[in-house]
Amino acid sequence: MSNMIEVTDINFEQAVVQSDRPVLVDFWAPWCGPCKTVAPMLEAIADEFGDELTIAKVNVDDSPDVTAKMRIRGIPTLALFQDGGVIAQKTGAGSLSELRTFVKGNL
Predict the structure, then answer these.
(1) Of 4, 7, 15, 35, which is the active-site residue?
(2) pLDDT tens digits, one per residue of 4-49
(3) What CATH code is carried by the domain that includes residue 87?
(4) DSSP 3-state assignment of 90?
(5) Per annotation, catalytic residue among 7, 23, 32, 38
(6) Calpha distance 92→94 (Å, rounded)
């Protein structure tokens, strides 16, 4: 798992918003079935794009402030941050191919 980090309400600003490289944030929960489907795909994306971006995982149950601030309504939600703001966002599991296209199309 290269370039994958756990992020919480406490370190979100520093780890994601202030990052000098793009960060793909996965908003997830341990009880979410589709989130479990996305997890190995994110590991593959981390391996493939590890030189270009960081992947951050935010457990919505443990980080209610960030979840509310980002207006996360469904999970999994993936938000791609660059230069301090969200440049792309998608909700739902999808396939590895769709995830790869989402990342490539927004980097």
Answers:
(1) 35
(2) 899 999 999 999 999 999 999 999 999 999 999 999 999 999 999 9
(3) 3.40.30.10
(4) strand
(5) 32
(6) 6
The token pair at 38 is: 């996305």
Is 32 designated active site? yes
CA distance 74 to 34: 11
Q: What predicted TM-score, i.e. pTM, was given to this entire model?
A: 0.93
Domain coverage including residue 29: 4-106
Pairing outcome for strands 23-28 and 77-82: antiparallel
d(CA 60, CA 19): 21
* Coil, helix or strand at residue 32: coil
| Number of folded domains that form the chain | 1
- Identify the helix (H) or strand (E) that includes residue 24: strand 23-28
